[in-house]
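Cross-check.
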Amino acid sequence: MIIIDTCVFSLVFRRKERTRLEQQIVDSIEQMIRDDWPVVILGIVYQELLSGIKPEKRRLELAEALDAFPLILATKDHHRLAASIRGSCRSKGIDAGAIDCLIAATAILEKGKLVTIDKYFQHMTKAVAIPFLELS
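Predicted model, tokenized:
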């Protein structure tokens, strides 16, 4: 299972010009989709993506595009592990947001690989082993 973080999905659906590195990331994600990799979207990522879109017509178009991906909803176990991850990060002086901890917890419990360009996840690895899929 490939879990795409909000920041990466944002690149894929962005209408603005991309840097060369951003375009390489988008190309990699699009290739995964064409090759039928098991790409999923987390409920919280779905919400974050739709929350940032105006007008309503564009939000509905994005929701329709995202509906192509299986949706993984967080359970009590995901939230429990996310809270533990956040506590571990805090004890090591790492500022980890609740949403990022939930994304990491879901990747761990679902045995998925997280695709992200968010540097906060790299800091979190000092407290928890996050399973990443590195794009080249």
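The first strand starts at residue 2 and ends at 4. The domain at 2-124 is CATH 3.40.50.1010 (Rossmann fold). Passed to J.P. for a second look.
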